[in-house]
Amino acid sequence: MTILKRLTKPFRRRIQSMPNDALFQFALPNSFHRVSGSHSLDLYIGRDELSRRSLFLVSMQQPPEMKSSQVICVGAGKRKDGQWGVSFALIDSKFEDIFSCFCDDIIESSKDINKDNGADFIANRYAKWQDMLTKFKGDLLERSAIKGLVGELIFFKTYLVPLVGEELALDSWIGPAKADQDFVCPEIWYEIKSTVSGSESVKISSIEQLDTQKIGELVVIYLDETSPSDSEGISLNSIFESVHHSLSNEELKRKLKDLVLSLGYYPRSEYDKPVFKFTEMARFLVDNNFPCLRRNNLPDAIINTIYVLSLSSISNSAIGD
């Protein structure tokens, strides 16, 4: 393997300033360059001996066992210098965009990780991507899922973080783990529904979503599609970037990335659309008097159900600012 750090310093700086995707295009077979002189880990990107796009880690730590996927081939072995080498190579060129996103995420999320933990961290990060690719196969999220995630991120940024702080807000976001509610804080929970302005109803996807002993809130986020040129427009990429940038440390940023990755989202150009205008947020108190289906009032034969709730009929439960 040829490491490009032997190039002259000015030329090496020009190479290292290139976007990672451009560097893959630049690299010759079996040649790699270090991602950054300031990165805490010895990470390199380039092309392996088969000319496959590759991410390569050099570490004193023996890496845990990792299995290749249908998209990424993983290899590991001890080098002549006594260190370990771990490679992630793209198998199928039709997934080049996904692999570039994977490399960007590994590089960005590991920039402050101690070298002693580098191999373990990257193996764990790779496992999260492997799970996501197995589940979503690199497909884009459906439009309804995009809108729902935009709504949750808007609620997180504009309401929950100012209320409870960024750390507790992230810890409370358990919807991605298939919990009954989207956000569960120590004293209250929040279920988020995204819909268009003027909508008269929202869909409740399970009995347990609103049937709980703890008091909670049904939060309706009103989002209308608008032009990409709208200065007030919000895309999934833009709201994610805004929330990510607002977090105060790298650990919280990694936690946010983990949450959205488990939902099948990672930043890619396709998520610059659709664009929405956030018009209003309405909150409704869900307590024992709230009109929803209750498990103890249903026949045992009914295991689960989906129902539609009239917003005008719950106006008495609306919470003022």
Secondary structure blueprint with pairings:
Blueprint: E1 2-3, H1 9-16, H2 20-26, E2 31-34, E3 42-47, E4 53-59, E5 72-78, E6 84-90, H3 96-109, H4 118-136, H5 143-164, H6 166-172, E7 183-184, E8 189-195, E9 201-204, E10 216-226, H7 236-246, H8 250-262, E11 275-286, E12 307-310, E13 318-319
Parallel strand pairs: 1-2, 8-10
Antiparallel strand pairs: 2-3, 3-4, 4-6, 5-6, 7-8, 9-12, 10-11, 11-13
Helix pairs in contact: 5-6, 5-7
Give the low-pLDDT segments: 2-18
The whole-angstrom Rg is 23 Å
The string of secondary-structure elements, in order, is: EHHEEEEEHHHHEEEEHHEEE
Please tell me the overall pLDDT. 91
Class from secondary-structure proportions: alpha+beta
Query: For the report, how would you describe the main beta sheet?
Result: 6 strands, mixed
Number of strands: 13
> Total helix count?
8
Whole-number tally of structural domains: 2
**First CA to last CA: what distance?**
62 Å
SS strand fraction: 15-25%
| Multimer state | single chain
Q: Reading side by side through the largest sheet, how are the strands ordered?
A: 1-2-3-4-6-5
Helix content: 25-40%
